[in-house]
Amino acid sequence: MKHKRLFIVLCTFIFIFSLGMKNLSRTPKNVYRVYLQGKSLGLIKSKKSLEKYIDNMQVELKKKYNVKRVYAPSGLKIEKEITYDNNIISTKKIYEKIKNESGFTLDGYKIKINPYNSTDKKQKALTLYVLDKKVFEDSANSTVKSFVSKADYDTYSKNKKQTIKDVGKIVENIYIGNKITIKKERIPADKKIYTDTENLTKFLLFGNDNNNNISTYTIKEGDTIEDVAFNNKMSTDEFLIINPKYTSATALLYPGGTVNIGILKPELSIVEEDEVVAYQEKNYTTKTETDNSKNINYSEVRQKGVKGKDKVTQKVLKVNGETTNIETTNTEEITPAVEEIVVKGTQGVGRGDVYSGYGTAVATKGEWGWPATCNSISSPFGYRWGTLHDGTDIAGCGYGSNIFAAQSGTVVKVSQKFDNGKYIIINHNNGYYTLYAHLSGFNVKEGQNVSKGEVIGFMGQTGYATGVHVHFAIWAGYPYYGGHVYNAMSFY
């Protein structure tokens, strides 16, 4: 029994010793562990063999983009490892795992375009990929030329000396307002990669790779560029950008021909800074006098108003062809304006009432008073970027300058909202209403009767406004609630 136990112990010792010697005889291997997005895919013998295999297998990708090399996905890491593990996976199996879970990469450029002057924190930067940096540079340059006239672009780009003898314009600066970073790196082949200037330029102008928002229109008898643009929710400037063969909004359209129509959605903000010197009409003020010997319906122009003339120097800021701010830096009076004096009767006004010039407004063209102290229009009535701009933006008068009632009437709204900022609505008691938005302050109250030319508020930049101006609109019916908006300039 004792011998038997000794034999078992001896056999166990020999077995353990043999096993240990076997392990001691094993040699550790230099291998490579493959990770994809932090997840281990397994071990391979050679890092170079996997990289070469990926490149050799992606023949179609090379043909598609006309490149010599295709690389591993950006999230792939191959790290050297020393191990006794014999579980080595073939290069082909690892490749299949990678192919099923991620895309491969190419040598190229990652372009990041940050929003221009955006206060919306949710608005993210745009990322583009190109194989050749020059494709983006040429596309950006083409986009600039779409929003800047050829004459202005040539003058500025050639650094020609610009002077203004009497009136005219100096282009002080042209630049892309967005912060743009261009970084050379391995770019993902499963993302959109722009390989030519034409397609990238279209995207930078329209924000659409499929060009679904570009179509054609057949010209009819009597069509004008202004009509075609407006009826297709475009501005005339947008029409001219999409149809570069027309150099002016007054160019003739021939029936049977076709033009491009579409909504611009620029991905770049092309900024142009100009100094402009021009002669401007100066509006006259209206003074209302009362005559208690005349009936309340009596009205007579004792002295007819005459517009004056000023020579005005202004700094004009444009973004993508749209004027966003006008600052008047100098005004020289050439001819003074003559005040208009209107006499109105007061008989029939109740005791204790204060005559305010309340009466029926006229809708006749030329009978409306100008609502501001200056005449510069920064943004006209019409469509821009597919949305109707339902008023006329008047700028250049300066922050806090007077805003006048365009006609006599009753103030029905003095309020503030996120888009219009501080605004006033006047009922002119003949079916027409006027709206004055983005004011810095008020000079009237709701229910107050006002006369044509009376100061009702002050120019500002409240609400959604890119610069100091007043948004002026004329409506038939109450604004936005069943009313119909007109181009206010058709009343002048």
Task: Explain the overall architecture.
The protein has about 500 residues and is an alpha+beta fold. It has nine helices and 27 strands. A hairpin with a 3-residue loop joins β21 (about 410-415) and β22 (about 420-425). α2 (about 45-55) packs across α4 and α5 (about 135-145) packs across α7 (about 195-205). Residues about 20-25 and about 350-365 have low confidence and may be disordered.
Radius of gyration: 37 Å
Could you say which overall geometry the principal axes of the C-alpha atoms support?
elongated
Strand content: 35-45%
**What oligomeric assembly is this protein in?**
single chain
Fraction of helical residues: 10-25%
The termini sit apart by 127 Å
Count of alpha and pi helical runs:
9
Structural class per helix/strand content?
alpha+beta
Mean pLDDT: 87
User: Tell me about the biggest sheet?
Assistant: 10 strands, antiparallel
| Low-confidence residue ranges | 19-25, 349-363
Using DSSP, what is the number of strands? 27
In short:
This protein has helices at 2-25, 47-57, 59-65, 91-101, 133-147, 150-157, 197-206, 225-231, 236-242; strands at 29-36, 39-44, 76-83, 105-113, 126-130, 168-176, 180-188, 214-218, 258-262, 270-282, 286-295, 299-303, 308-319, 322-335, 340-347, 377-379, 382-384, 387-389, 392-395, 402-404, 409-417, 421-427, 432-442, 449-450, 455-459, 469-476, 484-486. With 492 residues, it is of the alpha+beta class. A hairpin with a 4-residue loop joins β22 (421-427) and β23.
